[in-house]
Specification:
Layout lengths: L16 E2 L2 E2 H10 L6 E3 L7 E3 L9 H14 L4 E4 L9 H7 L5 E3 L2 E8 L3 H10 L5 H8 L2 E3 L10 H10 L1
Parallel strand pairs: 3-4, 6-8
Antiparallel strand pairs: 1-2, 5-7, 6-7
Length: about 170
């Protein structure tokens, strides 16, 4: 998920350098270790398949998730594993706990999750019917499993990135 405006960061955090590569590259590499295919939602980022929000631009995380779910359905994937472009670490043991029969999210890191591709029609309906298109409204309706994990970095401000770099 890479469609954010980066207001708190003060610019495009997806492209902010971390250990010599943009943050988005770290997130892509973290997911690629566990997925048959990686797509970038919410921005054009060659050479990866890039998906615009569905059904309309600028829908935020739900628009990106909806695009990913439809892409997964159309390409025969069982589900979608998600993370934000500002979340450079995705431990393997977390993947094992997320992937299952139903949707699951990481406590406190709601962009990290697993979503069965069969949810695409439900999310379409939710986006048509709900005035509030926040990811929290989707969670309230869907009730995904919540998986607990140790604190993982989520880069929202330049200070967060500096702290991560200092930690190693």
């Amino acid at each position: 998920m890479a469609g954010g405006r980066g207001r708190r960061f003060g610019g495009d955090k997806a492209l902010a350098p971390y250990h010599g590569r943009p943050l988005i590259e770290h997130a892509i590499a973290a997911l690629a270790a566990h997925c048959a295919s990686v797509v970038v939602c919410g921005r054009d980022y060659p050479p990866y398949t890039s998906l615009p929000d569905l059904p309309l631009p600028d829908l935020g995380p739900l628009g990106g998730l909806n695009a990913a779910l439809h892409h997964a359905s159309q390409h025969g994937f069982a589900g979608v594993l998600t993370t934000g472009c500002d979340m450079p670490i995705f431990p393997a043991e977390l993947v094992e706990r997320l992937v299952g029969d139903g949707p699951a999210i990481v406590e406190g890191q709601h962009m990290m999750g697993y979503w069965p591709a069969a949810l695409a029609p439900r999310l379409d309906q939710h986006l048509r019917e709900q005035e509030h298109r926040s990811i929290r409204s989707w969670f309230t309706m869907l009730q995904p499993r919540v998986v607990f994990a140790p604190p993982l970095p989520n880069i929202n401000r330049p200070e967060d990135l500096r702290q991560l770099e200092e930690e190693g």
